[in-house]
Amino acid sequence: MLAPQQHAPFFAWVTGWFNLIGQIAVTTGIDFGLANLISTTASVINGYHATAGKTLGVLAVILISHVAVNLLSVDKLRYMIYTSILLNTVGVGCLGVAVLAKTRSHQTAAFTFGKFFDGTGADGPGWSIRASPAYVAACGVLMSQYTILGYDASAHLCEETRRAARDAPAGLISAIAASAGLGFFVILALLFSVQDFEAVRTSPLPVLKILTDACGEGGGLVLMVLIMLCVWHCGLFSMTSNSRMMFAFARDGGIPHSLHIIDTRFKCPMRTIIFGASCSFLLALPALGSHVAFAGTTSIATIGLYISYGIPIALTLAFPSNFKRGPFTLGGASKIIALIACLWIAFVTVVFCLPTFNPVTSQTFNYTSVALGIVGVFAFGSWFLWARRWFTGRCRNHCRICIRQLDFLGHEMVGRTDTNDSDSRHDRHQGLKSSESIGHRGSDKK
Q1: Dihedral (CA of 239, 240, 243, 245) sign
Q2: Cβ–Cβ < 8 Å for 394, 257
Q3: Do 259 and 27 touch, CB atoms closer than 8 A?
Q4: CB–CB of 261/403 below 8 Å?
Q5: Contact partners, residue 353, CB within 8 Å, separation at least 6
Q6: CA triplet 303, 307, 312: central angle to 5 degrees?
Q7: CA gap 73, 66 in Å, rounded
Q8: d(Cα 168, Cα 187) in Å, to the nearest integer?
Q9: CA dist., res. 179 & res. 151, Å (int)
Q10: Cα(144)–Cα(410) distance, rounded to whole angstroms?
Q11: What is the largest CA-CA distance in the chain?
Q12: How far apart are CA 98 and CA 119, in angstroms?
C-alpha cells in the first residue's frame, strides 16, 4: 500500500478509473488507426472510396478478431506474443534495412536531423510564427508519447507470469529499450529514404509514399502489410491488458463484480474481453459526425493512462516509508527517476491540452481538455458522492467467487510461481474455501 491507509481507497479509485478509461481509449485509438490505415492504403492503391461508416465497419471486424484471439487460454495466447515479438523486432528491423537498401538516393544528414517544417498552419502561418518553433517541437512530441504506452500491461498480466516479481519489471524495461532502439532506427531509415519531400508531405499516407518510392508499388504494399500486422498485434494485446485490468478492478469493486468471472470453457475473463471491445467500438462512434470530436475523445487515452501511472509514482515520493521494495529495484536512482517521471507526466498533460493547429476554430480546437475534464469530474465526483461510502480499495478477503477463479485456473495462475509466498497464498485460499464450504453446508442443514 503506497498511500496512508485512510486515503488508500481514494487514490485507488481515481487511479483505477483513469486507467480504465485510458485502456479503453487506447484500444480504440490503435484499432481505429489500423482501420484508417487499411482504408487509406486501399484508396491509394486501387481507388477505394473510404467513408466514416466503412471505416467503422473495418474497425468492427478488427475488434471481433481481437476478441476471438483473446478467448484463447493463456497457454495458447503466449504463441501470439512470440509472433508479435518476432514481427516487432525482426520484421521492423528488416523493413528499415529494406528501405535503406532499395531506395535510389539518400537524403543528407543535414536534411534528416536539421530540416524544420511547421505543419500546424491550417490556412496560413503556423505556431512557429505565432508562438515559437519550440511550441511546434513540443506538439511533435505528442505522437511519440502516444505510442509509448502500456507500461501497466506487465502488471495486469503478472498473475499469469512465472516469477512475476522479477520478470514483469524486467520485461517492461527491456520492451521500452527495444522499442526506443528499433523505433529510432526505422524513423531514420524512412527520413533518409525520402525522395520528394513535398510529395510525401501532401500524400494521404506519407509512409506508404516513402515505401513505394523506395521499393516499388508491390514492395511498398508488402511492407505496409507488415506494418499493419504489427499494429494489429499491438491492438490485440492492448485488449488483453484491458481485460485483465477490468477483471482486477471488478474484483476490487470498482466496476460490477459480475465482470470478475473466468469462463469455464475458454479459461479467460470472457466478460471483460467482450465488454472492453464493446466500449472501444462505442468510443469510436463520434467519428461518424466529427473527426475532431473523435480525436478529442481518444486523446484521453494518453493523458488518462499517464495520470494513472503518475499517481503511484508520486505516492512513493510523498510517502517513501510505505514503499516496499521487491526483488527488482532501481536502487539509489529510484527517487530521482520517480521525480523526473512525475515532472514529465505533468509536462505532457499540459502540452496535450494545447491547440496544435492555427487558427483555432471549432474544427481545429483541441478537445482534450474537455475530455480530461469529463473523466476528472466523474472520477472525483463519483468518489465523493457515493464510492467513498463502500469502496475499500484492493480486495484482501477473497469471496467465494474469487476463490473459485483461483481454484479453476490452478496451474494457470497460482501454479505459475515457484515462490513460497505464492504457495502460502494458495494454502490460505484453500483454507478459505474449506471454511466457506463448511459454512455453506451448515446453512443448508439449517
Answers
A1: negative
A2: no
A3: no
A4: no
A5: 303, 366, 368, 369, 372
A6: 160
A7: 13
A8: 28
A9: 12
A10: 40
A11: 86
A12: 28
CA torsion through residues 181, 63, 236, 297, sign: positive
Q: How far is CA 427 from CA 33, 321, 415, in A?
A: 46, 29, 12
- Spell out, as residue ranges, where the chain has pLDDT lower than 50: 400-401, 403-446
User: pLDDT value at position 66?
Assistant: 95
Helix, strand, coil shares of the chain as percentages rounded to 5? 75, 0, 25
Give the pLDDT of residue 159: 61
Cα 429 from Cα 423, distance rounded (Å): 10
Q: Is 263 helix (H, G, I), strand (E, B) or coil?
A: strand
Residue for cell digits 471488478? 250
User: Are 73 and 267 a contacting pair, CB within 8 Å?
Assistant: yes
Cell 478509473 belongs to: 17
One-letter amino acid for residue 80 of the chain = M
The answer to whether the Cα torsion of 420, 237, 253, 386 is positive or negative is positive
Peptide bond into 4 cis (omega under 30): no
Query: Residue 246: which of 294, 284, 278 has the closest Cα?
Result: 278
Contact criterion met (CB below 8 Å) for 162 and 416: yes
The model carries a pTM of 0.81
**Closest Cα partner for 399 from 266, 270, 258?**
258
pLDDT of residue 354: 84
User: What angle do helix axes 300-318 and 133-147 make, rounded to 10 degrees?
Assistant: 90
Cβ pair 204, 43 in contact under 8 A: yes
Task: Give me 330's grid cell.
Answer: 532501481
Contacts of 395 (CB under 8 A, 6+ apart): 251, 252, 253, 402
- The per-residue pLDDT for 356 is 81
User: Which of 435, 186, 138, 168 has its CA nearest to residue 327?
Assistant: 168
pLDDT tens-place string over residues 250-270: 888 888 888 888 888 877 888
The whole-number pLDDT of residue 292 equals: 67
Number of alpha carbons in the 13 Å side-chain half-sphere of residue 14:
18
Residue 158: predicted pLDDT:
66
Burial class (CB in 10 A: 0-12, 13-18, 19+), 238: buried
Cell of 394: 484492493
Q: What three-state secondary structure class fits 278?
A: helix
Question: Among 66, 409, 431, 443, which Cα is nearest to 266's?
Answer: 409
- Give the pLDDT of residue 228: 95
- The DSSP 8-state label assigned to residue 239 in this structure reads H
What is the torsional sign of CA 31, 35, 36, 41? positive
pLDDT reported for residue 69: 92
Q: Return d(Cα 181, Cα 230) in angstroms, integer.
A: 16
Give the per-residue pLDDT at 419.
Answer: 41
